[in-house]
Design brief:
By secondary structure, the protein is an alpha/beta fold. The radius of gyration is 32 Å and the shape is globular.
């Protein structure tokens, strides 16, 4: 190969020639992020041209070329092995310049076209100096032939062209077209490239593969597409037009990669990872010496299965109503982990190996498997393996639906039976496990089981999950709970044990109106609900422990009827999942924190006595001595387990772990972790942070204004006018610092997020605080350390500790460092004091400064 430094003008100018993007290349993929960076580089070079400086050109990257099989001596054609994104972008930029000056400088416009864009005396595809891959060719050709009488169809090619037209319009000023021609000069002669030219006979596939380290990194699907079409020298055009182009149009690149992986799994390779897809499929083809017809057959099979795969992504495309309903529910569950099993079922149905009714029945087993495990708090960490292995493990000689039922009921699948399901509905904190949309779907299915003659349109209804007995109970609730306590349990312990259980949860569209009001007021609102489950709650005179447990039993009966049970006698293994959760949470206790038997029991859905017995009789439980009574005292019955953690005085050990003690010998209550905070420590999927993030990403507009008004209306109902004005002042200062305010819909109340980053861009923002109205107990500012721990630069624990130090400088705030991975809070009423407000604003300014300097630190 030969390599030389060049510029765009030298590469494409001169005699007629063509640069062809081969079939195996992906489509044009640059987005505004890459375009904006290139535009900044172009403008910098144009400014240097204006000042007459010839040095300091900008290196754009490499272009790798190989002689095309269609090459002619009088008309050279080159395959663009690497660099098509750069060449396409520069060509579109010059097309935009040509069209921008067409009316004022027609001769210059014609010059630009003939020098860089077209071969004037050639026709058909040969007319274009750059010939993109087939999917991009029509749109690219329309722009180069232009100008367009009407806007072209959406796509990355059109978006890039319009990006440059927009930037050129912004550039034109008093100097007329001079600025534009300086930009042309910058593009054609100030952006340097390294042109690498391969000789005929060089393995361009290997070259392409080895260059997967610049620009937009190639995906596994890109690499596999490259490999497939390099092995189709005679059938490539036909296969591309017949199978690949429709396939590429029906699925995104990520979806196509997922389908390629699923095809490997369905063909029996149950251990391949998606990131190893290309290598695994390449090895299969080369091991079997795959011929051109066999490569074509593989792509044709991908094309066939793409129609089935789309039904998983878009259940409305499924023709059978019963199968469609189950696909909709699994799609709502976000059960991508089940795709190997679902594709297997749809594939077998298409091959007439099972009916639609049996397909729906098999899918009901999959749904039950997921739902029962979630309700019973079975960890999800083995689900990938369970479903990926399914195609190769399905029993032979057994109908497919029955075989799947048997397989999911087998050893170590942990599909809970009816007895365990019934117990967990009564005792497990349902609200703290799984993801919020999964919890909502369970409640929706339970509501549907009542078969109301006028069912709710769940797609249109804005329903959220409501705690009937509220999470922050007032005095009326506490008095009622006191009458239900027994065996020395306090009203607070009883509330903690029952508040998140399924029996205390429902769906409502009037969550903020229900809030933390006494039951009598909630009763009237629930009675007016269109949901049958709410009317049944409203028909109950009171709402205490007995009523919650009675409703739990009713819902358990319905759950057992809705979601089929596993088969008996398949060799199910017993387990102690709840204690594993306890061990996991205790092992994660940060230094300087403790918890109580009641908190741990409420987190597990167990009883405080059972927790105490387990810790007392189980060796090797990490941090067991940091479980204290609710008053912060060491339990009278505490003993170090034989061979356990030692014989030290427990208080001495706790002090060494950073636990502070009051003058009365009790552990500092500020360092206590509640059941909710234990749930955060043991969370598997960051669901709480995800709920926060999705809530704040709402378009700014009328809906956003309504949420802001709702936030302050709720705050005014519960806090003093001085607190409300203090909050308004803090939010105004935040906006002066360059931040913006996002308002969440919330599952109980609305909220205000102090945001940095691009407004409305999911996953890109960061926020230090979330403000919540109090719902009867005063508003709070939540310090979202759990969120910050995954966002640069605050993945650095030292930076989070520094931020905490600034917040602890507020009078009345004393958050222990043990909560640097959690979400502690302080009262908004503290902001009424001028010095507290000033210190908070200083802390927020420091936070913004650290975030803005993250890339240069």
């Amino acid at each position: 190969m030969q390599a030389k430094e060049t510029i765009f003008a030298d590469l494409v100018q001169g005699r007629a020639q063509q640069f062809q993007v081969p079939l195996y290349q992906r489509t044009y993929s640059w987005t505004e992020k890459q375009l904006q960076q290139l535009w900044s580089d172009i403008r910098e070079q144009a400014d240097l041209v204006e000042r007459g400086e010839k040095a300091n050109t900008h290196f754009l990257g490499s272009v790798v070329l190989a002689p095309s099989p269609q090459n002619e001596a009088t008309f050279p054609r080159w395959l663009v092995v690497d660099g098509q994104q750069r060449l396409t972008t520069l060509s579109l930029a010059l097309t935009a310049i040509r069209d921008h000056v067409r009316d004022s400088e027609p001769d210059e416009a014609e010059r630009i076209g003939e020098e860089y864009l077209v071969n004037k005396r050639k026709s058909g595809n040969d007319h274009f100096r750059l010939l993109p891959t087939q999917a991009d060719r029509p749109q690219f050709a329309r722009h180069v032939r232009g100008p367009l009488a009407e806007p072209a169809a959406d796509g990355n090619v059109g978006a890039a062209y319009h990006f440059f037209r927009r930037k050129l319009a912004e550039t034109s000023g008093p100097t007329g077209t001079q600025d534009v021609f300086r930009i042309e000069q910058a593009i054609t002669s100030r952006l340097t490239l390294v042109a690498v030219t391969a000789e005929r006979g060089d393995n361009v596939h290997r070259i392409f593969e080895s260059l997967n380290n610049t620009g937009l990194k190639l995906s596994q699907a890109d690499l596999l597409r490259n490999y497939l079409f390099m092995r189709l020298p005679t059938r490539g055009e036909h296969v591309y037009d017949t199978f690949w182009l429709p396939l590429q149009d029906s699925l995104s690149n990520e979806e196509l990669e997922q389908l390629m992986w699923l095809q490997l799994v369905l063909d029996g390779d149950d251990r391949v990872r998606r990131q190893d897809l290309y290598t695994a499929q390449q090895q299969r083809f080369e091991r079997n010496g795959a011929s051109e017809p066999e490569i074509e057959a593989y792509i044709a099979e991908l094309h066939r299965r793409a129609a089935l795969f789309r039904r998983l992504l878009h259940p409305e495309e499924e023709p059978d109503a019963s199968v469609r309903a189950r696909l909709h529910r699994l799609n709502s569950w976000q059960a991508q982990v089940t795709y190997p099993a679902l594709m297997l079922l749809l594939d077998r149905r298409e091959r007439a190996e099972l009916s639609s009714s049996d397909t729906a029945r098999a899918m009901s087993y999959i749904e039950s498997f997921l739902v029962r495990r979630m309700i019973c708090r079975v960890p999800t960490n083995n689900l990938n393996r369970v479903f990926q292995a399914m195609p190769g493990q399905l029993p032979l000689g057994v109908p497919v639906a029955d075989g799947l039922h048997q397989l999911l009921s087998a050893d170590n699948r942990f599909w809970p039976a009816d007895g365990e399901l019934r117990e967990k509905v009564r005792t497990a904190p349902f609200y703290q496990f799984g993801r919020w949309h999964q919890r909502k779907m369970v409640l929706q299915r339970l509501e549907e089981s009542y078969e109301h003659p006028e069912p709710v349109d769940f797609g249109a209804a804005q329903l959220t999950i409501e705690h009937v007995m509220p999470q922050s109970p007032g005095d009326e609730w506490t008095d009622m709970l006191r009458a239900d306590t027994a065996d020395g349990e306090s009203p607070e312990d009883l509330h903690s044990r029952l508040q998140h259980t399924l029996g205390n949860l429902t769906l409502t569209a009037v969550n903020s109106e229900l809030s933390n009001h006494p039951y009598e007021r909630k009763q009237g609102l629930l009675h007016a609900s269109h949901l049958e489950m709410n009317r049944r709650i409203a028909a109950t005179e009171r709402w205490g422990a007995g009523e919650i447990l009675a409703r739990a039993d009713e819902l358990a009966d319905r759950a057992i009827a809705l979601w089929p049970a596993p088969l008996r006698g398949v060799g199910r293994a017993e387990r102690s999942r709840d204690w594993s959760l306890a061990h996991q949470a205790l092992a994660a206790l940060p230094r300087g924190t403790w918890t109580s038997y009641g908190d741990l029991a409420a987190f597990l859905g167990s009883g405080a006595q059972a927790v105490g017995n387990h810790l007392a009789n189980t060796r090797g439980v990490v941090n067991a001595y940091r479980v204290l009574t609710s008053e912060g005292k060491v339990s009278d019955g505490f003993r170090w387990t034989p061979g356990g953690q030692g014989s030290d005085d427990v208080r001495t050990r706790l002090s060494a772990d950073g636990i502070r003690f009051t003058a009365h010998g009790a552990a500092d209550p500020a360092q206590r972790l509640t059941a909710d905070e234990l749930a955060l420590l043991a969370a598997e999927d960051g669901d709480h942070a995800a709920e926060q993030e999705s809530a704040q990403h709402t378009p700014v507009g009328q809906g956003e204004v309504t949420r802001a008004q709702r936030f302050f209306r709720q705050l005014e109902a519960d806090d003093s006018p001085e607190t409300v004005e203090a909050v308004r002042a803090v939010l105004a200062h935040w906006e002066e610092l360059g931040g913006w305010i996002g308002h969440g819909g919330g599952h109980v109340t609305t909220s205000a997020f102090l945001m940095l980053g691009e407004a409305g861009a999911p996953g890109r923002g960061i926020w230090p605080l979330t403000l919540y109205p109090g719902g009867g107990r005063g508003g709070t500012a939540e310090i979202v350390f759990q969120h910050l721990a995954a966002r640069e630069p605050f993945t650095d624990r030292g930076l989070r500790a520094a931020f905490l130090g600034r917040l602890n400088a507020l009078e009345g705030v004393d958050v222990p460092e043990g909560k640097l991975d959690l979400r502690p809070n302080f009262r908004l009423s503290l902001l009424e004091k001028d010095h507290n407000r000033a210190r908070l604003i200083e802390a927020l300014a420091w936070f913004r400064g650290r975030w803005e300097s993250r890339d240069t630190a």
